[in-house]
Structures are given as C-alpha cells and as structure tokens.
Amino acid sequence: MTTLSQNLLDLSDFAWQRLRQRVEGLTDDEYFWEPFDGCWSVRKTAEGYVADGSRLPPAPAPFTTVAWRITHLVDILQAERTATWFGHTATEEPPPVPGSASEALAALDRAYEIWRGRLAALSQDDLDRAMGPIAGPYGDNDGTSFALHIIDELIHHGAEVGTVRDFYRGVRAEDPFPAALAGDLTPADRPALLAEAAAAQRWDVVRHLADRGFGVNERTSGGMTAAHLAAGTGELDTLRFLIDRGADLSLKDTQYDVDVPGWAEFFEQQEVADYLTARTRAGSGA
Q: What are the residues facing 142 on neighbouring strands?
C-alpha cells in the first residue's frame, strides 16, 4: 500500500515535471514580457534584481509576469517555513532574484530540489502532528495540510506561468511549416518541428518534413514524439509512415512515461493497438 508520504511526493513530482516542461526554452523576452501597463515584474536596481510587491496586497491584484511568478515560486518552495513548520531546520541561503531566463530556470531547479528533499524527509509523525505556534494562525493544522498547500502553490503558479507563455506565443503567432517546407527553416533551426506538426495534427506536413530531414524521434515540449501522437489519435497511416522512417516505438513520453503502444491502448485506439500487437508478434516470430 502506498504511504501518504509517497503520495505527496508523487503529486509534487508530477506537478513539477509538468511545469518544468512548460518552461523549457524560456527566453529573456518571454521572462520579462509585460502585456499590460502596471504589471508586477522583477526590476534591475543598483543592488541587483528586485521583485515588485506591496506590504498591503492590492485589489484587484496586478497581472504578474513570468519573471515575477517564477521568482515567487522559487521563494515559496525553499522558504524557511517549508522546513521549520514541520519541525525541521532550514540551512540553505535564499538566492538572489533571477535576472534572466537561464538564471530563473536554474533557481527554479534548485528550489524544487530543496523542497523535494524536505518533503521526502518528513515522517508520518511530521505529517500527522499539529504544527503549533511557529505556524501562527495555522498552528492547529497538521503537516499534511501544509504540504498540500505548498504543492497547490506549485500547481497553480505553474499553471499561470504556462498560460502566460501561451499568451506570449499567441500574440506572436506564426506558422513555421511553410518556411520549413520552402527550405528556409532547417532541422538544425527547429529540431522538434515534425513532432510539433503531429501535435497540430498536420499529418500531411509530417510527411513532407520527414522528407526534408526533420527527425521522427524528436519530442514536443510536452515530451511526446510524432509516433505517440499518431497512435493516440488513431492516425494509423501516418504511424506506419513514421515506422518506415525509423520511429522508435519503445520511446516513452516524458509526461506519462508510456511508450507508443501504451498510448494507443490508453486512448482506446483499437485499430492502432491491434496493428502494433500484430507487428510485434510478427517480429518475434510468434
């Protein structure tokens, strides 16, 4: 039977992996993007970068940039209270506010490493025990409720970061496929473009991109290959084409950790599942 501690770790890790995939490739322009006047962000000062804020929360709350949201999440995950409220000791020093996208991702990785280590170290007694006076008005709450609160912060701020990236891309939307088909965009420029075409269900484009040397085993930012996506949507003809071009059906996506046949089964694409099963049997001589 799975323990409460392991369930909390699994939930936290799942939320973390989803966020980490959503921020992969983050640029400085996205990091600092302010779509409206009055956004809260992080600002450069003589002492370094500082996050906007107010002792009295404004109402309504201002729109916050990716920079502000990641900085806030870094602070939450490795705050001293994520150790002391459980009765443990915090020894890590708080990092400076990240002044670039690369610094932000490094800080985010480090913050999650710290939080996960603290979460993994909790005993059942830590989770069951009331936190006491150190937690102020939350002193009567047990450690489990606080652990769930931090995981909820990871989930909802992670969703906000992903949404702002979507907004950023939406206002700068461009169709990369014509440029690739014309030879103006190469596999070196955008290695995962064939997988992106599969994610957009542009199956005709998938074939043309393969002809132009785009890799069939590259992954989308969500961690899926074109073969995963073809199997999951029941696109059997395209899946056959990808297999002929060298698609590796044993590769597992990075979100669900499932191979290509597993996607066909999970998404109830019976024709695809039957084809892959028959292909495996034929290959094994059974």
A: 130
Q: What is the C-alpha to C-alpha distance for residues 230 and 237, in angstroms, rounded to an integer?
A: 9
Domains of the chain: residue spans and CATH: 4-171 (1.20.120.450), 177-284 (1.25.40.20)
* 40: three-class secondary structure by DSSP: strand
DSSP conformation letters of 122-151: --HHHHHSB--GGGGGGTTSBHHHHHHHHH
Could you give the C-alpha distances from 14 to 8, 155, 211, 258, 265, in angstroms and in order?
10, 9, 36, 14, 21
pTM exceeds 0.90: no
Return averaged pLDDT per consecutive 10 residues of the chain, 286 residues in all. 92 95 92 93 94 86 95 96 95 89 97 97 96 96 97 96 90 84 93 95 96 96 93 97 97 92 96 95 67
What is the rounded CA–CA span in Å between residue 13 and residue 120?
A: 11
Which amino acid, one-letter code, is at 123? S
